């Protein structure tokens, strides 16, 4: 749990809420390829990703999968359904061996009924995702492939804004997944990664991208 309690969001919480989470979170482990929840499932609470990778996807009627995001630890998710009590909107899969910490929905709702001021802190998690979603839509419309890919890699390296004072040096994500997330062809992703590698910004690895120069990656994310 230490990786989660060191996360920027957790450290921003009031001490009583930190203590409640530490007392009520329950560990859950998933094997690679195991599904955490499916689109349409009833909400079951808040999750903290402590180890491994979780892939969020949508599937159309023809069975074609779209990858929305691949999360690295530390990351908290599941708060959307706390606000609307609606079913899960997407499928969540273990991309690797995964360790999660789970706060069940009934316990969270009871706490929030007793301490409604805590809603604001969960709202911060929600608004982070809304901001990232707006940015992703804007990127699809306005950015060229290189800037679009650089922007997504930079966001992933900083945990979509959840990391403070450090960044991830290796992003466990495949070229196929990047292509799906960014509405690009795999060939375009491959060519763009090669160009970024030649510039000394990243290094390609098997099923991963190593970030060598985050500042340069951010500069590439800004359209000329």
Average predicted confidence as pLDDT:
90
Contiguous helical run count: 10
CATH class membership of the largest domain: Mainly Beta
Any idea what the shape is?
globular
End-to-end distance: 42 Å
Sheet having the most strands = 4 strands, antiparallel
Report the portion of residues in β strands: 15-25%
The helix content is 40-55%
| CATH homologous superfamily caption of the largest domain | Jelly Rolls
Unreliable runs, pLDDT <50, ≥5 residues?
A: none
Kindly state the number of beta strands: 11
Tally of domains: 2
Query: Structural class, from secondary structure content?
Result: alpha+beta
The CATH topology of the largest domain turns out to be: Jelly Rolls
Relevant terms:
single chain; 224 residues; alpha+beta; Jelly Rolls; Arc Repressor Mutant, subunit A; 2 domains; 4-stranded antiparallel β-sheet; 10 helices; 44% helix; 23% strand; globular
Helix and strand layout, with pairings?
Elements lengths: L1 H4 L2 H4 L3 H10 L1 E5 L4 E3 L7 E7 L2 E6 L5 E7 L3 E3 L2 H5 L6 E4 L3 E7 H10 L4 H24 L2 H13 L12 E2 L3 H8 L3 H13 L3 E4 L2 E4 L2 H7 L4
Task: Kindly describe this structure.
This protein is of the alpha+beta class and about 220 residues long. The chain has two domains: about 1-130, Jelly Rolls (Sandwich), CATH 2.60.120; about 145-220, Winged helix-like DNA-binding domain superfamily/Winged helix DNA-binding domain (Arc Repressor Mutant, subunit A). Helix content is about 45%, strand content about 25%. It contains ten helices and eleven strands. It has helices at about 1-5, 10, 15-25, 80-85, 105-115, 120-140, 145-155, 175-180, 185-200, 215-220; strands at about 25-30, 35, 45-50, 55-60, 65-70, 75, 90-95, 100-105, 170, 200-205, 210. The strands form three sheets. A four-stranded antiparallel sheet has the order 1-8-3-6. It has a four-stranded antiparallel sheet with strand order 2-7-4-5. A hairpin with a 5-residue loop joins strand 4 (about 55-60) and strand 5. Helix 7 (about 145-155) crosses helix 9 and helix 7 runs antiparallel to helix 10 (about 215-220). The protein is globular. The model has no long low-confidence stretch (mean pLDDT about 90).
């Amino acid at each position: 749990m230490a990786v989660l309690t060191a996360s920027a969001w957790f450290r921003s919480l009031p001490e009583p809420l930190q203590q409640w989470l530490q007392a009520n979170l329950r560990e859950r482990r998933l094997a690679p390829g195991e599904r955490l929840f499916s689109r349409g499932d009833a909400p079951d609470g808040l999750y903290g990703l402590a180890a491994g990778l979780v892939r969020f996807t949508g599937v159309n009627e023809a069975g074609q999968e779209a990858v929305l995001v691949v999360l690295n630890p530390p990351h908290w998710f599941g708060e959307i359904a706390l606000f609307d009590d609606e079913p899960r909107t997407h499928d969540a899969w273990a991309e690797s061996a995964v360790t999660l910490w789970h706060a069940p929905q009934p316990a969270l709702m009871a706490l929030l009924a007793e301490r409604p001021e805590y809603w604001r802190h969960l709202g911060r998690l929600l608004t982070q995702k809304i901001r990232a979603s707006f940015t992703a839509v804007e990127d699809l419309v306005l950015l060229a492939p290189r800037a679009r890919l650089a922007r997504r890699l930079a966001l992933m390296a900083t945990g979509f804004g959840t990391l403070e004072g450090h960044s991830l040096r290796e992003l466990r994500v495949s070229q196929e997944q990047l292509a799906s997330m960014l509405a690009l062809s795999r060939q375009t992703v491959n060519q763009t990664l090669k160009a970024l590698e030649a510039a000394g910004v990243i290094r390609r690895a098997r099923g991963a991208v190593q970030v060598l120069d985050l500042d340069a990656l951010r500069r590439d994310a800004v359209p000329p």
